[in-house]
Amino acid sequence: xxxxxxxxxxxxxxxxxxxxxxxxxLAGDNDHFAAYVTAESFRGKTRIQQHQMVYQALGTRMxxxxxxxxxYTTIPTE
Length: 78
Known about the structure:
Blueprint: H1 5-15, E1 20-25, E2 32-38, H2 47-58, E3 68-74
Parallel strand pairs: 2-3
Antiparallel strand pairs: 1-2
């Protein structure tokens, strides 16, 4: 069973509480999403580390319930 956008958003927000998260369904099929995540906790981390934090929030759902996720991370501007 595929995941819904609000489920993805909720999991990321639970793992990174200060994050601002926007999820877009790229193909309209509830199977290919993009996650835009802005979080202060990304500061000082490499892009790879930032993405790992997001993927970690999704756990074993990646590759199972969630087929494809493009991740875009940013740090809040002052």
